[in-house]
Amino acid sequence: MTAPAVSPQPSAIRLSNVSRWYGNIVAVNDVSFTLAPGVTGLLGPNGAGKTTILHMMAGLLRPSAGTVLIDDAPAAGNPLVYRKVGLIPERESVHDYLSGWEFVRACARLHALPDADAAAHRAIDQVDMAAPQHRRISTYSKGMKQRIKVAGALVHDPAVLLLDEPFNGMDPRQRLHMLDVLRQLGQQGRVIVISSHILEELNDLATNILVMVSGRLAASGHFREIRRLMTDRPHTFHIKSSDDRRLAAALLADQSVFSVELGGDGIVIRTGERGTLTRNIARAARDTKIRLTEIRPTDESLESVFAYLVAK
Amino acid sequence: MNGPYMTVAWLTWRQLFARRRAWLAAATVVLPFILTFFYRLATEDREGDRLIFMLGMNREIVIGVLLPLTAVIFGTTAFGGEVDDGTMIYLLVRPLPRWGVALTKYLVAVLVTAAIITAAIMLAWLALRNDELPGAVPRSFITASVVGSLVYCALFSYVGLVTRKGLVLGLLYIIFFENILARGVPGVKWLSVREFGVSVAQWAGGGVVKFTDASVPMTTVWVAGSIILVGALAMTIRTMMRYELVERL
Fold it and tell me: Which long-range contacts (CB under 8 A, 24 or more apart) does B201-208 make?
């Protein structure tokens, strides 16, 4: 991997009371935060407003209210800001009639870099795309397209790098490589913002996490703190067995159980210690000679996890 | 034009000729030549016939059909192709003023359209030329095609930027406005780019190219043409300046 010759000047992004609405739909609602150099994860379910926030940071959307500043300059309507900002969009496709090399070199030339070819080579090497660089982008896999987009965004060595769901479509090896690249870029003093709807994707990468839910900033903090909040939350299980009433009575004695609800279609149990409960259910069934037919977590959807964080 | 704008132009050029549009351009170039070839096969070579055929074909086929069709395909694609493919973002996140990007893309569309029509006119003329067909004939129609390209591409670039149905709307405009209304309703001629082209060809023809029914005065051509061109370009630049990448919620 080739490191850029010069590390960029430290930058900062500041959002102050930023809102954005489309007609009567509020996509982002009164969000404020400041980002310093390092890797920040923008976490939230689909439709939470992550892409809108990234696009406002990239100056591609004007906030309906509030201000978005990059190094104290407004992001929107300010082309010069792109000298220090690189954006990797999620959905937007690449010019698939170009080769990877042509695309990255065009990006370098659009920035009027003094040695566009050298910059393009460096960026392509950084994302490990040297071998297929002369193939048409239309022949690339989704992961390769993603990496060539990253190369196009890195080519001018930006101090701020905004990535929208960058790991989508990447295989595990590509993902590890990309994590490595982003970690190195973060250590070089860049402001890196990565949007994702999977917390574990940001493991060992983003120290700072911002959680967006329904257009609002629901939580922010260190990765470990957010992870602890997510895993220690109450969990709900739906259980069916050969004798629901006796099993409910046995589980009620378990210290890890908050509540037991006996219904016509099985038992609903709430617990704060997911691992302990799953072991104790099996033990209680064995001791009481009850046959378990179903154990199903009922609130594992991402939305329910984020809804819990909002409530916190 | 400096480096970054040359790259915008190069990307636009590649966009214009992607997806088999190069074949459309080639077909446009050879169609008048094929018609000329059949004309030579099918008719006796009487004095004056060649000039009449060449004037009629250039007026009705080249200026009347091929020029607006080429302009609508390449004019709408210059911007609409980027919007449809989702590649516009890679031009917007560069340290370039958006008006510069818009003008560059427009100029590439004009150059490509004018070059294709020029090649079509020249090829047919080369196949038929003799003393009856001096160089003033292709020159006059090339001048008309350049003027027509400037105005048509301004219109179609704007349409391509603001709607994903730019090509369809452009085709409807060509069929209903340019070829039905402008031919049938006298007052509408004064706003028809096709009729501007006919008047420009006659004006640039130096007495060789004459149409008895070229009714739009050159003053009107320059004034109305400039208003349409500048107005459409201003709208295109304004739309580009305000262009936002809206998330699909």
Answer: B201/B58, B201/B59, B201/B63, B201/B140, B201/B141, B201/B143, B201/B144, B202/B140, B203/B140, B204/B139, B204/B140, B204/B143, B204/B144, B205/B136, B205/B137, B205/B139, B205/B140, B206/B136, B206/B140, B208/B51, B208/B134, B208/B136, B208/B137, B208/B140
Note whether residue B247 is domain-resident.
no
Best mutation site among B1, B88, B247, B248 for testing chain A: the one with the most A CBs within 10 Å? Answer: B247
Query: From CA A246, how far away is CA A271, in angstroms rounded?
Result: 19
Calculate mean pLDDT across residues B216-230.
92
Q: Collect all residues of chain B within an 8 Å Cβ-Cβ radius of residue A83.
A: 95
Q: Sheet holding A73-74: strands in order across? A: A25-35, A13-22, A65-70, A73-74
Domain with B114, as residue range(s), is 3-242
Residue B119 domain flag: yes
User: CB pairs under 8 A, 24+ apart, for A263-266?
Assistant: A265/A240, A266/A238, A266/A239, A266/A240, A266/A241, A266/A294
> Smallest Cβ distance to B87: which of A59, A85, A93?
A93
Question: Measured between CB atoms, which of A85, A86, A97 is closest to B14?
Answer: A97
Residues 6+ apart with CB under 8 A from B236: B79, B102, B106, B154, B157, B158, B161
Give the A window 81-100 contacts with B, CB below 8 Å. Answer: 81-83, 85-87, 89, 91-98
Residues of B in contact with A112 (CB under 8 A): 2-4, 95
At residue B212, the pLDDT reads 75
Buried b (16+ CB within 10 A) or exposed e, A43-64: bbbebbbbbbbbbbbbbbbebe
A214 φ/ψ sector (left φ>0, alpha ψ -120 to 50, else beta): left
- pTM score, whole prediction: 0.82
Q: What is the pLDDT of residues B131-163, one digit of tens each?
A: 778 888 899 999 999 999 999 999 999 999 998
- CB contacts of A47 in chain B (<8 Å) are 249
Counting the structural domains of chain B, the total is 1
Average pLDDT, integer, range B118-129: 92
Of A87, A95, A111, the CB nearest to B87: A95
Q: Quote the minimal CA–CA distance from A205 to chain B in Å.
A: 25
For chains A and B, CB pairs below 8 A equal: 89
Q: Which residue of B has its CA nearest to A53?
A: B247
- Domains of chain A with CATH codes: 13-230 (3.40.50.300), 233-311 (3.30.70.920)
Question: Given a cut of 60, is residue B248 above it in pLDDT?
Answer: no
